[in-house]
Amino acid sequence: MSLPSNDLARQMHETNSRLSSWLESLSLQPASPALPPHVATPHQMSWLLSELLHAGQNLRTLPGERDARLELEISVYRENVERLRTLLPSIHKALLSERARLEQERARVESATEWVRRSRQTL
Known about the structure:
It contains 3 helices and no strands. It is an all-alpha fold.
């Protein structure tokens, strides 16, 4: 079932507003090079995937005849997806860095746990 063109345009506009805001916040550079880059959280990535899937459902129901407003919103959506595509390598890099940091922290905690276990055995 397809939505009327003006309803689709409204939904795409809302999607574009949310995506633009999220992309803008993610692409902001930290105030200092010493600070880590902004990293997308798992919650944000889940939200992004959900938003893209919802927009995909809307795009699959596009009517044959589209008004100018809907065409504009589709164009803006395409630009947002292109912006996301350019940000994906930096998101990936930041997530890999975060994973490495968490693995180091886990190794440190495991080492401390092992030290405590061995200390108790000697007492």
